[in-house]
Amino acid sequence: MSIFDTPELRAFRQEVREFLEEHLDDRLVQQTRGGLHMERADMARWQAALNRRGWGAPHWPKAFGGTGWSELQRYVFEEESAFADAPLGDVHGLFLAGPMIIAAGSAAQRSRYLPKILAGEEFWCQGFSEPNAGSDLASLKTRAVADGEHWVIDGQKTWLSGGHHADLMFCLARTDPDAKAQAGLSVFILDMRDPGITLQPILTMDEGHSVNAVFLDRVRVPRGNLIGELNQGWTYAKELLARERVNNAQAPRTKRDIVELDRLARTLTDADGRALIEQGWVRRKLAALTADFVALESAALGVIAEQMKGREPGPAASTLKIRGSELQQRVSETAMALLGDAGLVLGPGYGSGLLAPEGRGWAERHFFRRVVTIYAGANEIQKSIIAKAILGM
To answer: What angle do CA 270, 272, 278 make, to 5 degrees?
Structure first.
């Protein structure tokens, strides 16, 4: 019997489905299904609906607004949300900034920022990567210098996902230039409206605007905006990146995509009018994707269980990130192979007469997913982490 097939989880799944049916509207569904670049107002509206139900952040401790669910309940919720095409919301606030503030922030920071993340009233972005400090994050050059009751921050950040939607940034900066690379870093909260912050859009190959460059020119940050202890930013960054890697595995949404591939294979036909599912290469592709997903889901559940007990995932996050990101790429590659010409049109703006309904959103996802093996730490770096931390190499 499946671990999800209990009376309690069946009742809970039905409760989640009823909520989704009642609160998800067609605009939210179509934006989620059709691509990756949602409007902030729509993400905020969905987050507010979840928060009113008390479901704003199922992965947070109950004392800070979490649900108190088990790991299986959390997974059921994420799975049902994926299959209903519900938006992800502000990932940087919910999965990164919020947990970091809960773990290391002051009481004043928790009181100020957590309620607005839960309510969808403030959005966040992540100021880590720089033009010459991506996977080698410890080599970053952004500086923070103490000046009375403020810190003055100068530098540049890039690949700032969601920066154009964000109200706030958690920024990693060097506070001790004489310490070794990892030891002299700290994390600060920046208001994106502060003088000295200039945002520059970066358009990715899917022709969407999701990332940005930001320039920091003598940005004055109050002393109280330091998260945790001075010069302990590397410790917080490692924990944050591990959480990000777990989230980036995207197991429930990959499951939904594989089910959709199966539907496409049974719906689409070849030149002779036969369903694609009848072809051997299609069945082999779907079988391999399904088998690898089962392994990914099992590993993800194990990590979620550890997180729900308050333990950080550690190097296991690297294995999830590698397998999850590679599987996402294989799924979109398979979709493009099944769709053929129907998958070549990037979006409705290219002409509705050319846009086959079954191809909607797949080209955008396919192009954007070139980056999933790079962000949150390139997969090559994750393999080095596994070699050192798990294999002892």
So the answer is: 55
